[in-house]
Each structure stands twice: as C-alpha cells, then as structure tokens.
C-alpha cells in the first residue's frame, strides 16, 4: 500500500486541522461582518488577528516540512495545500480591510449571497482536509471536492448577477469600481477553495 511507510506522527494533519479551523473562523467572521456591516466593527481587527495567526501556522507547517525526511503525503502537496489555505484567509482579510478603507456605507444582498457561498466552501474545505488523516476515508474527500466545485460554480453565477446589477441604472462610477473589486476578490477566495479541492484530488490519485 502507498501508505505503508507513512510516519506514525500525524503532526501535519494536526497543523492542517488548525489551519482549516482558522479558514472557517475567518469566513464565518466575515459573513457576520457583512450581515451586520459597520466600518468600525471590531470584527475587522479580529480578521487581521486571524490572518496573523494563520501566517504563524503557515510558517510552522513549512518549518516542520523542512525538518521532516519522510512525510505522510508528498512534500509538494503539503507545500501547495499550505499555501492555498493561507491564501483563502489572506484574501478574506484583504476584502474586509478594503471595505473599511473604501468607507462602504451599506452592503448589497449580492455580496451577502457571495460570502454565504464562501463560508459554505470553507466548511467543505475543512471536512475534506480532515479526511486526509485516514486513508479509508479517501473516497469521502472526492465527495467533498464535488461539493466545493459545485459551490465554486454557484459563486461564478452569483458574481455574474452581482456585476450585472452593479452596472444598472447609471451607477456612480466610484461605487462601481469599489464593489466590482470587492465582488471579484470574494469570488477569488471561493476559487481558492476550489484550488484546495484540486490539490486534494491529486493526493487521492497518488495514494489510491
């Protein structure tokens, strides 16, 4: 079996679990922020703290990777997965900071819809990554990947709707510029969740 030489320690899986916990908390905090928008909300600072905590976790994963000779999954996959999880959190935090900087006054329903898909995607990512611990559950990873792909397609559809409404009724140009960026970066965070799914699918192929 491909996993017969797998080291007994599961520190990488523990560290991945910690990172996906942060992904979920970041997405959940952001959803709460857009549903109860206040440009001075303490949730904006909380997102910055979560991003900083994720950076520490990313450094810890890379440090462990550099000090480990035999890894439970391929080194390049650990590296890729680590970067992708960190990217999700970075993108969410950057959106919140940009919204505060742009002094957004109110949140369109279209943004809330997009962030709800992002939060669902984050939870699916956590379930998929946690399934790496047990090779008997590898088939479940593919089910979660299918769900992440479905959510990404939903995100694409919602982005198209949001952009379409944004350009209706002679909108203020600066508002268009602001929200076009916010919508697109939010959808990019959903895309990053799909990137995680693609990496997980590669891992399954290698070890099935």
Short description:
With 208 residues, this protein is mainly α. The chain has one domain (11-207): Methane Monooxygenase Hydroxylase, Chain G, domain 1, CATH 1.20.58.220. The chain has 6 helices and no strands.
Strand content: under 5%
| Major beta-sheet overview | none
Distance between the termini: 9 Å
Tally of strands: 0
Mean pLDDT: 93
**Which CATH architecture?**
Up-down Bundle
pLDDT < 50 stretches: 1-8
Briefly note the structural class of the backbone. mainly alpha
Describe this structure in words.
Mean pLDDT is about 95; it is low at about 1-10. The protein is globular. The relative contact order is 0.16. It has one domain: Methane Monooxygenase Hydroxylase, Chain G, domain 1 (Up-down Bundle), CATH 1.20.58. α2 runs antiparallel to α3 and α4 (about 110-130) packs antiparallel against α5. It is built from 6 helices and no strands. By secondary structure, the chain is mostly helical. Helix content is about 80%, strand content about 0%.
Helix-strand blueprint:
Layout: H1 11-35, H2 42-67, H3 75-101, H4 109-130, H5 138-166, H6 173-207
